[in-house]
Every structure is written in structure tokens, then in C-alpha cells.
């Protein structure tokens, strides 16, 4: 397991300069624009991209069929990608949380809630994307991935137009409070689904 | 006898191809060459052995373990070389060593770097900049750098120049010096296999045509060159395959069944293979 994560980290290191540049860019833009939340959101998106990128490298190198000849269980190979995603999401959360403390006057509770929300959204996104990619491959998965991401957004945008009233502030707050729990449950379910997909996969 | 690798009635059905009732037994300490034309089912068989694809029927044991039950317990002892490199191609040998030693408990760092030196492979050059021969040698180095007792190789010498092939064959012979080690190697370069193998398994259109000790094959068969009339006098059961040309016929025959004063030439593995296929076509 550790070996696989080290492999992905070394592999991703080659992209680290680009990632750091993007990070810096969004940081400056959000500081200049006075919108810290955008920075938080962007780094979560970057973190979500990490396990996807790692999977696309594996696919390009035909790594899986070779990894499966090593003393690794199929489940371990899948789990390593989820752990990779989690590591980067926690890093993104921490970074956004700390920059908020340093550069804004946002109160601690709000800081925590905002970043927990973006963190949870990241977790949920990975939960939906990874099984799709494992099932269909990165190329086909990419299109489905877009559908998965944009459908909820489209629905939310469409709701008021359909005459459905926006929920009360209280309802939203309640929802946000339980979101992290829901996210973790989704993540675990997603792992189970992915493992069962991967176990049936032929290489 | 202990078998390093055993396939019993293994069947895998695809829409347009069937791997049909494959039976292979590789005794420990031996090298088996797995030959057949492109698309005969060599890679499919190897994938089945490695449990990369599911079989429909049959049983496969590697080093005595069923590959569907406790395959993971012996993976430390299986060295695999695929037909093309499957390593993250923008990493170099040093970086690959870093994570491989966390994957294999028996990973031998010193041996790995020693092999790289022996193969003159640069440690800090990315895999993607390697030539095909270097990639192959690199894969072989990796397969030998943990506690491998069996090497399973798919087309490990194809596409390489004769000098590199010779080098690789020497490494295999060195590996097999330890009598508990075995090699299963597929190739369509028959001459390579003829040099090193103890057993030859010939697969054709998804079926095993023969799987026998090489020496027995060479001993058993001979090539008879004669006229068509002469051939008619020979017992049908003595002839395995016929090839006609304008000077007469060439036939692959069982040497011990031919009586009388015929000139029988030696047959090599390639002849034996070709005549077997010929017979099936007719």
C-alpha cells in the first residue's frame, strides 16, 4: 500500500511545479479580489484531480496488469487511490484553513464550516468519479465525470425556475452540518463499489 | 514430480476466439518454451496464469498454489516480464527502486543495482528514454530482484537484436542453475527457445498441439524426403505431416516407425511445428 502511494507521489512530483504555479495564481487572484473562498474551492478541485491524474498515468503505462503480478491485493490497489485523494484533500483543507486565519478576519467557526463544506464536496466528487473511471477507463470516464459533476449544478440552477422555492437558511445550515458525515459515508460506499468493480476487471 | 506450473483443462471463451482445454505441466527446475503464431492464444494463456483475466473452466496452479485461492501468498516468488514495459515511464530506476522495496518484502536493492550495472542501464534515465532492449532488460532485472522461483515471460526476447537476446538467454540459464527455479517463456522466435528450453509447448488456434520435452521431440521426429510413390508405401500412422514440392514430398515422420532404407534428416522444432500445423489444415 505504502509502496503504491509512494509510486504515485513520485510520479506526480513531475507535475508539482505546474500545480504550485496554479496554486500561486489562484492565491494571488483571490487575495487581490478579496475572495478567499475561491482559493479554498480551487485547491479542493486540484486535490480532486490528483487521484484521477494518478489513474490516468497508470492507464497510460499499463501499470495495473503488472501491479497485479506483485504481492498486492486488488482491493489494496483501489484503496491506495482513495487514500491518495484523502491525503491531498486534507492538505487542501489545512492550507485553506490556515491562509484564511492569516489573511482574513473570518471567525474560526465560519472558517471551519466553509472549509469543511468544500472538503466534503471534494470527498463526494472523488466518490462518484473514481468508480466511473475504474469501470470505464479515463478516456470514456472523463465524459461521464462531467455529467456527474454538472448534473447537480444544473439541477440547483434550474430549481428556482421550476418554481421550487429555495430552502430556508436554517435548512441549509442543518444540511451543511451533516454534510461531512454524509461525505464520509459516501466515500466508504464508493470504496466498496470500486473494489467490487476492480475485482471483476480483466486486463 | 513437483510442478512449478500446471494448467488443467483451462478454457476461456471469447466471441471470436476460444482457448480450448489447455493442459500444461512445467516440472520444477525446467524451462518451458511456449510457442505459437501471433494470435494463437499465448498472451491469453499467460494472462490466465497471472489471474489478470478470468477463466471459464479448469484449474491453474503456480508453485503448487491455486491462482484463484491463495495466489497472493506466492507472488513474492513470481517474476513477470510482460511484452512491453509497464513501469511508470517518467520515472528512473532509482525512483522505481524506492517504491518497489515497499511492495516486495524480499526486494533486494543491492542485487537490483548490480543487475542494472551488469546490463549497462543508466540509473537516472527515465524509462521512456530507454530503448526497447533496455526496457526488456530492466523488466528482467526487476523480476530477478525479489525472491523469484518462477519467471513467467511473455515475448521477452521479441524485437530485440541477436546480441541482447543472447545476453538475456545467458541470464535465464544462470537463473535456472538453481534447481528449484523454473521458467515459462512465450515467444515466436523458435531458435531462442530451442537453445535453452527443456520443454516445448506448441499452441495453435487456441489448442495445445503438443507439450513435450524438447529432446524427445527432436528424437522422435525426422524429415523424410522422397517421391510421392515412395511415400505411399509408408504406413500412414508413421507420417505426421506432408509438404509437397516440385521435386517430391517432404514428410515429418516418426523415426521408429519407418522401416527400410530411407534417408531421414533431423527435424528442428520449427519443422515439427510447421508440419503439425500443415496436417491440421489438410
From TrEMBL, chain A:
Regions that span the bilayer: 15-32, 38-57, 78-102, 114-134, 143-163, 175-198
InterPro entries in the cross-refs: ABC2_memb-like (IPR025699)
UniProt cross-references to Pfam families, sorted A to Z: ABC2_membrane_5
Keyword Metal-binding: no
The entry's keywords: Membrane, Transmembrane, Transmembrane helix
Protein name: ABC-2 transporter permease
Organism of provenance: Sedimentibacter hydroxybenzoicus DSM 7310
Automatic annotation (TrEMBL), chain B:
TM segment ranges: none
Gene Ontology terms, MF aspect: ATP binding; ATP hydrolysis activity
Entry-linked InterPro entries: AAA+_ATPase, ABC_transporter-like_ATP-bd, ABC_Transporter_VariousFunc, P-loop_NTPase
This protein's UniProt keywords: ATP-binding, Nucleotide-binding, Transport
SMART domains: AAA (SM00382)
Pfam family, any one: ABC_tran
Domain ABC transporter: 5-230
PROSITE patterns assigned to the protein according to its UniProt record, in alphabetical order: ABC_TRANSPORTER_2
UniProt keyword annotation of Iron present: no
Protein's UniProt name: ABC transporter ATP-binding protein
Species per Swiss-Prot/TrEMBL record: Sedimentibacter hydroxybenzoicus DSM 7310
Lineage, opening ranks: Bacteria, Bacillati, Bacillota, Tissierellia, Sedimentibacter
Amino acid at each position: 500500500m505504502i509502496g503504491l502511494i509512494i509510486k504515485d507521489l513520485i510520479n506526480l512530483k513531475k507535475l508539482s511545479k505546474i500545480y504550485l504555479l496554479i496554486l500561486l495564481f489562484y492565491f494571488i487572484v483571490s487575495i487581490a479580489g478579496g475572495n478567499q473562498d475561491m482559493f479554498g474551492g480551487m485547491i479542493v478541485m486540484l486535490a480532486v484531480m490528483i487521484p484521477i491524474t494518478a489513474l490516468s498515468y497508470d492507464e497510460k503505462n499499463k501499470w495495473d496488469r503488472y501491479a497485479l503480478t506483485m504481492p498486492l491485493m486488488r482491493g489494496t490497489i483501489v484503496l491506495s487511490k482513495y487514500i491518495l485523494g484523502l491525503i491531498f484533500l486534507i492538505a487542501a483543507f489545512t492550507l485553506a484553513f490556515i491562509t484564511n486565519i492569516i489573511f482574513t478576519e473570518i471567525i474560526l467557526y465560519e472558517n471551519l464550516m466553509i472549509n469543511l463544506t468544500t472538503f466534503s464536496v471534494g470527498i463526494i466528487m472523488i466518490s462518484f468519479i473514481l468508480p466511473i473511471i475504474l469501470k470505464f477507463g479515463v478516456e470514456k470516464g472523463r465524459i461521464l465525470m462531467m455529467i456527474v459533476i454538472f448534473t447537480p449544478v444544473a439541477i440547483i440552477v434550474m430549481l428556482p425556475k421550476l418554481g421550487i422555492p429555495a430552502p430556508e437558511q436554517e435548512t441549509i445550515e442543518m444540511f451543511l452540518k451533516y454534510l461531512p458525515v454524509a461525505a464520509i459515508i459516501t466515500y466508504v460506499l464508493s470504496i466498496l463499489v470500486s473494489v467490487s468493480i476492480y475485482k471483476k476487471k480483466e486486463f | 514430480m513437483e510442478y512449478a506450473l500446471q494448467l488443467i483443462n483451462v478454457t476461456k471463451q471469447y466471441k471470436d476466439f476460444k482457448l480450448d482445454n489447455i493442459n500444461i505441466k512445467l516440472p520444477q527446475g525446467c524451462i518451458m518454451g511456449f510457442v505459437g503464431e501471433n494470435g494463437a492464444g499465448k498472451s491469453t494463456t499467460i494472462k490466465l496464469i497471472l489471474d489478470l483475466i478470468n477463466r471459464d473452466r479448469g484449474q491453474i496452479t503456480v508453485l503448487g498454489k491455486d491462482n484463484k485461492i491463495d495466489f497472493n501468498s506466492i507472488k513474492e516468488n513470481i517474476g513477470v516480464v510482460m511484452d512491453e514495459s509497464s513501469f511508470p515511464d517518467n520515472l528512473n530506476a532509482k525512483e522505481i527502486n524506492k517504491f518497489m522495496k515497499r511492495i516486495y518484502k524480499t526486494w533486494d536493492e543491492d542485487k537490483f543495482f548490480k543487475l542494472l550495472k551488469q546490463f549497462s542501464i543508466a540509473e537516472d534515465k527515465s524509462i521512456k528514454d530507454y530503448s526497447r532492449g533496455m526496457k526488456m532488460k530492466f523488466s528482467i532485472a526487476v523480476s530477478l530482484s525479489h525472491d523469484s522461483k518462477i519467471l513467467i515471460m511473455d515475448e521477452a526476447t521479441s524485437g530485440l537484436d541477436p546480441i541482447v537476446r543472447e545476453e538475456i538467454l545467458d541470464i535465464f540459464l544462470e537463473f535456472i542453475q538453481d534447481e528449484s527455479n523454473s521458467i515459462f517463456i512465450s515467444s515466436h522466435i523458435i531458435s531462442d527457445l530451442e537453445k535453452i528450453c527443456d520443454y516445448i509447448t506448441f499452441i495453435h488456434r487456441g489448442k495445445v498441439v503438443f507439450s513435450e520435452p524438447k529432446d524427445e521431440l527432436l528424437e522422435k521426429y525426422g524429415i523424410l524426403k522422397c517421391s510421392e510413390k515412395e511415400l505411399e508405401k509408408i504406413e500412414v500412422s508413421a507420417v505426421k505431416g506432408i509438404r509437397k514440392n516440385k521435386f517430391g514430398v517432404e514428410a515429418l515422420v516418426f523415426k521408429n516407425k519407418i522401416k527400410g532404407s530411407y534417408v531421414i534428416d533431423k527435424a528442428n522444432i520449427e519443422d515439427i511445428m510447421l508440419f503439425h500445423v500443415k496436417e491440421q489444415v489438410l
